[in-house]
Structure formats: C-alpha cells, structure tokens
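[step 3/7] inverse_fold.run input=structure_tokens len=446
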C-alpha cells in the first residue's frame, strides 16, 4: 500500500535508522469478481517455510472479508507475541506490501494479548507521558489506532520488541479518529477486514521506519499529523496532540529487525496468464545474498530508487518509467497495488470505470531506470493489458493483465504504478536502505 499521493514527508538519509512511509495505492474492485462461473487454475506449488522464507498466496481473502472476490492481493501469515514470551497469536491473510513500512493488524486479532503501549515520556506537546497513536494514510483511505510493542514472527525468525500499529476496529474504542486524520484520508478510515480486504498489512518496503525525520521532530506544519500523543485515560480525540516520536519508537520494518537475512526481500511468484487464476502460491524470501536461496546473479541490473530528496523530490524512493516517450520519475513497484496504473488515453476504459477494457489484450513495453538518473540502469519491461470486465466476469482472484488509468491528484504528478501483475512470473529483489549487506541501496532487481 503506497502512500505516494499523500507523501509530503521528508526523510534525511544521514539520520541513523531513518526511513519513510513509501507509496501505496491499494485499489480494490468496484464490481466484478464472483460474477461468473469460470474459475482458473491454482498456480504454483505450496511453499514449505524455510529459515528465511514464508509462503505467500493470492486468494479470496479472509473470512468476513469482501463480499466480492479479491483482486490481486498478496497474503501471508504473521505471528504476533507479547515481547519475550510465548503468548502469541497467528494471524492469517496479512497483506504483503512492498510499498509501505511496518506491521499493522486489526486490534481484534490480538485482543487476547497484553501488548505494551508505546509510551512517549514527553511528547513535546502535552508535556507529560502519553500513549502513541498513529494516522497512516494511503491513497484510498487510511488507518487509525494505537502503537504497541510486539515480537513479530516471520517464518522461523522473530523481530524482537518492535513498534507496530493496531488498527482500531472497535467502534466504541477511544479515542475516536482526530479530525486532521479524517481530513487526510478524505473521511475513508479503514477499520474492518471488509474495508481492508485483509486482517492487516505487512509493510516491507525499502526503508526501516515508517516516518523518519518529520516525526522525529514532530513538525507536521506542511502535512497531516502522523503521530499523536494521547493521555492513557483519553476520552476524546481532542485530548490527543501532535507528537514527536524518537526513531526507536516509530513503527519499524519487521524484515529489517530480523536477526538474520534482514537486508531486503526476494519475492518469487509463478507466471499467470489469460483471465487469471483462482489461487496463486509463491514464496517471500528474506535477505539478499545471505543464503543459497536469495543470491542475486552477478549479471543482474540494479535499478536504484531516488535518494536526492533536496533536489529531485519527485524521484525520492522512486524509480523512473519511460512509456511512449514520456518520463514518469515518481514510479514504483508495489505489491500493495493490485493492478498496473498509468495514464494512456489510447486505451479504452470500461463503461463508467477507470479500468482498462481494450477489445483484445494489448502487448506493451516500457523502460525502468534509476530514480535520480533516468539514463542509468535502463531495463526494458514487456507487459500486457487485458479487458478488466472479462477478468471480473470470472471467479478468479489473480489477474495478470489488470490495468487502469492513473488519476493524479491536484497535489501530485502523473505516475506509473507497477502493481502486483508486474510480479507474476518474476523473481523480484528489493533491498532495504542502510542495512548491512544492502550496499548501494535502495534498489530493485528482477
């Protein structure tokens, strides 16, 4: 889930452990799915977990999820534990998102656990100890809820005592959503499995922290408020105040916190063709060049994300896409986006929809290259765009040719969003910036 259209943050790379919120545009179908009887195959073998990997799946989503079938949402299972104990809860259907940072789970899924709160000794606004709460916007909505400390199990490894966010899904829970947060997400606060299409989000993007310098300073003057300090006995959202949050209290990338294999991820998904598949099985491998199963070939091209936030902000933590002669310097690869979204007036849309509906599948190509230097590390990418109505007439959940028109907001430039269909049939590497063994990062390779 990428925050690109809301990304007003500035992260300073020289700050130890700093990071950013990445860019997510989780978009869900507004019709289609479960309309037809045509069901595609199950693609890919079920993966047995290894020391440094977990199984991932594209399927119909969690119980109590959408009444319509999901479209291109990648899931895994995560274990959440009280720090330093064996009191744990296994949570299935957590969305795997390379475009955000941090674990965020529905509070009801861990209600039997006693997870300690992230307590701000002096948040700089209230002047007293308070409990950290977070507003985390995405393009189509956002999340609200308290920050907790938990051990996070990914396969056979544990990220010990890291801050996570609980998604407040009890309508009676306090504090309610602050007005600034509601405004930042256009009133679309996602607080149920049905709204999310998942039981939570596992953000494993290219940086360590979900905010960084802005939240470290608590200066939200040019953006929405991301972190709040709320009194333990809070009764109203008005009791919560914008808060500065030290780097060790900000929501952390769970992969970067693993004891081993923590410098990036490798996502391996099988090829999917035609109208799609009813289910896809794949593997998420932790670490790059740290084990026999995550070696990057010496001949592989690394496409670097932009890091020059001072002089080339649109490319910051992004790459460049060249499509039909036009450069999109704020492009990104994102498993949290469920289609390929880009502007192309020559491709017809479905009736009353921004989904693409060409009469027959289109075979297209683009070039991916570095964010700060579009002429460096250029790699040609072929892709197909099919008829979304035809895909949605099936009961499938994995659609390889799904695409739609990228609609820029008033505050953002057009972009090329390489969502989950990009990852089908590929072995994709994503490094985590400033991690040992991830030199010359952050970058993608495939």
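[step 3/7] decode complete -> sequence:
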């Amino acid at each position: 889930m990428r925050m690109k259209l809301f990304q007003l943050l500035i992260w300073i790379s020289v700050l130890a452990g700093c990071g950013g919120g990445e860019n997510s545009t989780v978009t869900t179908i507004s019709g289609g799915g479960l309309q037809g009887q045509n069901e595609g195959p199950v693609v890919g073998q079920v993966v047995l977990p290894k020391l440094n990997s977990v199984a991932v799946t594209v399927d119909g989503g969690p119980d109590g999820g959408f009444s319509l079938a999901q479209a291109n949402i990648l899931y895994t299972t995560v274990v959440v534990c009280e720090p330093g104990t064996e009191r744990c809860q296994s949570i299935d259907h957590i969305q795997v998102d390379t475009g955000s940072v941090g674990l965020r789970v529905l509070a009801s899924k861990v209600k039997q656990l006693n997870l300690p709160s992230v307590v701000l000794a002096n948040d700089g606004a209230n002047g007293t100890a308070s409990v950290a709460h977070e507003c985390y916007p995405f393009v189509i909505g956002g999340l609200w809820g308290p920050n907790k400390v938990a051990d996070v199990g990914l396969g056979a490894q544990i990220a010990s005592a890291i801050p996570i966010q609980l998604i407040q899904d009890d309508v009676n829970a306090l504090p309610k959503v602050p007005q600034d947060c509601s405004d930042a997400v256009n009133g679309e606060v996602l607080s149920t499995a049905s709204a999310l299409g998942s039981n939570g989000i596992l953000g494993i993007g290219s940086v360590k922290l979900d905010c960084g310098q802005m939240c470290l300073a608590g200066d939200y003057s040019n953006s929405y408020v991301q972190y709040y300090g709320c009194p333990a006995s809070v009764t109203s959202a008005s009791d919560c105040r914008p808060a500065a949050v030290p780097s060790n209290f900000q929501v952390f990338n769970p992969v970067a916190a693993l004891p081993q294999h923590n410098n990036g991820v490798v996502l391996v998904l099988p090829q999917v063709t035609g109208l799609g598949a009813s289910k896809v099985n794949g593997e998420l491998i932790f670490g790059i060049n740290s084990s026999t199963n995550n070696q990057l070939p010496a001949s592989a091209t690394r496409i670097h994300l932009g890091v020059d936030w001072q002089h080339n902000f649109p490319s910051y933590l992004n790459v460049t896409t060249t499509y039909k002669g036009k450069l999109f310097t704020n492009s990104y690869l994102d498993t949290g986006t469920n289609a390929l979204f880009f502007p192309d007036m020559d491709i017809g849309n479905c009736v009353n929809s921004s989904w693409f509906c060409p009469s027959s599948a289109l075979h297209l190509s683009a070039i991916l290259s570095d964010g700060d230097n579009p002429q460096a590390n250029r790699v040609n990418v072929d892709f197909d765009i099919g008829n979304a109505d035809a895909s949605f007439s099936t009961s499938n959940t994995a659609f390889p040719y799904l695409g739609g028109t990228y609609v820029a907001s008033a505050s953002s430039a057009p972009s090329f969003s390489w969502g989950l269909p990009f990852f089908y049939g590929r072995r994709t590497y994503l490094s985590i910036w400033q991690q040992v063994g991830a030199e010359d990062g952050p970058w993608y390779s495939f």
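[step 4/7] annotate
The longest strand covers residues 142-154.
DSSP finds four helices and 24 strands in the chain.
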